[in-house]
Design brief:
two-stranded antiparallel ribbon; 5 helices; mainly alpha; 4 strands; single chain; Enkurin, TRPC channel interacting protein; cytoplasm; Enkurin_dom; cell projection
């Protein structure tokens, strides 16, 4: 192992000397900080007076033909007998402005307008204060009209559904007819044969029993209650 030391490995070792000088100069130029080096202005180009004011293009001049009226001379007589309706004595009088009423509601001086604070009774001073609003009156009239129509309808329904009381003669006549009809079905029931083996005989017997049962209920009802009502014809 030799004692000689080798230079550190670098990419610049593989470049020629001229290329390395150019690259180094370019690299050194990038190391500056601050603004770039610019050429200093010449001392002859200093800022002059009125140099930044707008100027007319060369060859053009101002063409102002209208002139103001001349100042009156000291010997000129002013125009007389010119009257006006304006009263200068009244217009020059300063009218004091009244302060807007306000209320202070805290010890720190916080205040608000008195009219909006609710302390001024402005609503009770209205002409229609305490009166029922028009829309409520209209609603009340509509409710009253609806209630009257409903009551009229109910009364008509009651009249249509009203019942008439049976008199004692009518009750006895109906009761007599029910008993007579029950006797008729009872005789037919007793005339049935002892042996009922066909479907028609069984159905006839069932009809007679149902009719007699219903007649017995009706007879019991008319005998129990002496006051009976019936619907009007």
């Amino acid at each position: 192992m030799s004692d000689s030391q080798q230079p550190p490995e670098s990419v610049y070792n593989h470049l020629s000397k001229e290329e390395s000088k150019v690259q180094k100069a370019t690299k050194d130029s990038m190391k500056t900080m601050g603004p770039a080096n610019v050429e200093m202005p010449s001392p002859d180009k200093f800022l002059k007076k009125h140099s930044k004011e707008p100027k007319l293009p060369e060859g053009e001049t101002c063409t102002c033909t209208v002139r103001k009226p001349p100042v009156p001379k000291r010997t000129d007589i002013p125009p007389m007998e010119i009257h006006t309706k304006k009263d200068f004595s009244q217009t020059t009088v300063a009218v004091p402005v009244k302060p807007t009423p306000a209320s202070v509601d805290s010890r720190k001086g916080d205040k608000q307008l008195l009219e909006q604070s609710g302390l001024v009774p402005k609503y009770v001073l209205k002409q229609d204060y305490g009166e029922v609003p028009a829309y409520l009156q209209k609603r009340r009239e509509e409710e009253t009209k609806t209630q009257e129509e409903y009551e009229r309808f109910i009364a008509e329904q009651k009249e249509q559904e009203a019942k008439k009381r049976l008199s004692e003669e009518e009750r006895q006549s109906i009761l007599k007819g029910l008993k007579k009809r029950w006797d008729h079905f009872h005789r037919e029931y007793q005339c049935l044969p002892l042996i009922i083996d066909t479907f028609s005989k069984k159905a006839h017997k069932k009809r007679l029993e149902e009719a007699m049962s219903q007649l017995e209920k009706d007879i019991s009802y008319f005998e129990t209650y002496t006051i009976i009502y019936k619907p009007k014809d």
